[in-house]
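Morning - beta-D-glucopyranose inputs below, output right after.
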Amino acid sequence: MDTVHRFIATYDSVRRHPNCSVIRPLFLLILFFTCSFQPAYALAGPIPPSNLRCEYLVNPLGIDVRQPRFAWILRHSERGQKQSAYQVLVASRRALVDQDRGDRWDSGKVSSDESTQVVYSGTALKSGHTYYWKVRYWDAEGRASGYSQPAQFEMGLLAREDWKGQWIGGANQLRTEFRLAGTVVRARAYICGLGYYELRINGRKVGNNVLDPGTTTYEKRVLYTTYDVTPYLERGSNAIGVMLGRGWYGWWCRSWPAPFSAKNLPLVLFFQMNVELANGQRVSIASGPSWMAKDGPVTSDHIYHGETCDARLETPGWDQPRFDSAGWAPAKVTEGPKGVLSAQMMPPIQVVDTIVPFVMNEPQPGVYVYDLGQNISGWAQLRVSGPPGTKVTMRFSELIYDNGMINTANLGPAKATDTYILRGEGVETYEPRFTYHGFRYVELTGYPGTPSMDAVRGRVVHSSVETTGSFVSSNSLLNQIQRMVHWGQLDNLQSIPTDCDQRAERHGWMGDAQISSEEAMLNFDMAAFYSNFIRDIRDTQGPDGAIPDTVPDRFCGPNTADPAWSSAYPLLCWCMWRHYGDRRVLEENYEGLKSYVGFLRKGAHDNVVRFFNYGDWIAVEPTPGALVADAYYNYDVQIMANVAKILGKSRDAETYSQLAGQIKAAFNREFYDARTGNYGNGSQTSNVLPLFLNLVPHDRMSPVVDHLINDINRHNGHLTCGFHGAKYLMLVLTQIGRADLAYKIATQTDYPSWGYMISKGATTVWELWQERTGVGMNSHNHPALGAVSSWFYEALGGINLDADGAGYRHIRFEPQMVAGLPWASATIGTVRGDVACSWSSAPGVITVDVTVPVNADAKILIPKPAEMRETKIQEGDRTVWENGRYLPGDPGILGANPGEPNFTFEVGSGHYSFRLTGE
Ligand code: BGC
């Protein structure tokens, strides 16, 4: 996202700040200056590439892809620009790239417009080595840019023999000491501690990751993290200490809402540190039997229940050299998990923000309740001083009773309780390491004395993906909904996409994952996160091709997943292709996808899949589950046909297209009711899914559309859909020219609607349309219904991928200027750069501003107000349409036509400001 759009996004959040009136003028001033001064290179033609990424990551450490892919973003001072060629240099030393030399790979001048997914094709990359790279490009006229600033990437440990460590365990703290006989010039630590670890060297925590490593199917795969630990080491004596937590490791099953059954395996650690000294010596420190073990102050930890830390059990200096380890036992060498060690190549979970509570109450003597004003995932940081042994307890909830006490009824068996027992020395600060909660309220009991507002801070914890999108409009309710989706989605990125973050669940429910994936990709840079999750999905696939309802598979439910859930496998792969142009994900998963579709096909009778578990989950009005399942079967096969085509597998493409046709015919036979002219039972979702998937034959279109619209009207402009209908209802209404009705649905404030949630104080999207606060299934932070945010970007923001536009190569701007919404603005940070669209509509004048990145082109559809005469369109200060004719000549505009109901301009890259006026 460029600076200006980042400012606009930030401005949006500033507007909601309680001190908005003070901050706002200041903010606008900064925005003015940012926009006014163009950097000097704006005059220069092709500008050196920026935002260099390797495997979607910025300067990654420890990647284990032997042929990593590169990406960069292009800028150019002129419009209508493309890359005609590129040159990548990869060198083993920084000095070489600085001299424009690539001793590992010099691609030479490659004629190509690819600026993303460029595959490394040099000599074999070596374990643990750092490589430096840069790139330049040639524009459409063959002018070369300068080289980019160098970036770097580093390989992880690629071969079994590179690993010298052993899996060890024996207690939740492990330590070792060692001496280094020289100055350290480079040191890397490779660590996997299960379930979670905290790595400490010489008294300091290493890095900012928490709840690391990401959870996986441990029998198949475990993730290790690489740290640059050079600054943590010293010549002479050094010490390493590792704390271990249970995390998800070894959990195999649960059942909701009954108490879950969980089997936890002993905590284990795999560690290796490779150190290079100034004298040329290389030393490896690895986990093994010489390490010592002893349980530390964390006396219990559990993801659902919380953590107990008895600070009296701390042994100061345990993570420093010259510690007296009397009472510590030798660590046990164990077998460790069965899964392969893979590099963690995604944004780690981190503490990304700290929230100051805005109010504290004492609803009962000694019970203090803090309100953060926002439902978050994470924990609280506690500041306290008091006598040793004082036990302070923090409990967490999303809800509060009228009497001010916290309401934990919706957490199920999750105890969500952190306990700190004071060491009794001065001010003590505690925050847990191995648990997290979904909460807005913190209840503090056992506090010695009266706590101040400063006793508690909210710590926001989730996968540290970058926010790359923003949507803002003149309707503050929509902005509030967008904000609620944004928070809820982030809260539920916990190395996997989770269904919720508070109750005894938090699984990678696949239906939730797929339905929210587009929203997530529009709001955040999800490429590395989903690359990891798709591999997780593949790890769980059965030999028969089946995919479970949850990934990792931790739910003791039906043996066969609901197809609307397991379809996350093809749908996520497809989204990776559409949004990021990721061809490799299609190649790597092609066989897996075929086998998955083969599984569905085997389960189908007469080309209809009838099995399901959940259907259109949490709908206000039910839809036959078989209809939902079968619609997804068709969707999956349509995706397979497309994937086969993209990969050049034409025979498969043909087979899958034919199969999709057969499923379509069977769907119509099975689910269309000629008597009523409805699909299924005539619910909104029953008619929406076939409309969305083009399953409705031409002659049935108008009755089906009429039924859908009548049903919405009958419900006074409300939806009645669950997870699966809600997303596609908005898209279908937009496609059939009824964005106005979708807008009406989106801006309702009574039940059932997103606005209803807001009216009841929601700060994250609920699981249910109903307001429920008692025992049972009613999470107040569930991303699935937040899928509506993709409609904000696509319909109201107007930013759409064109049919063959994977990776935003071809964009279609088609803002829906619905009555009652004077303006909207959206930006998406894409693999090609920022794509933006802002519009305003007032009587007699429409403006549309768009940004198209270099290497992309776009169609811009500007609505033709039916009542407007003498229409004139200007772009910047040039007139491009007047007296019914297109006036060519504006740079970057390739053509225009006045089709109905829009004017369409075709443009190359650049920023364009259209202004349509008329009588
Ligand atoms: C989860 C859902 C999930 C569902 C399956 C629930 O308990 O929270 O979001 O998709 O189970 O129906």
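Note: Residues 238 and 630 are 61 Å apart (CA to CA).

O.
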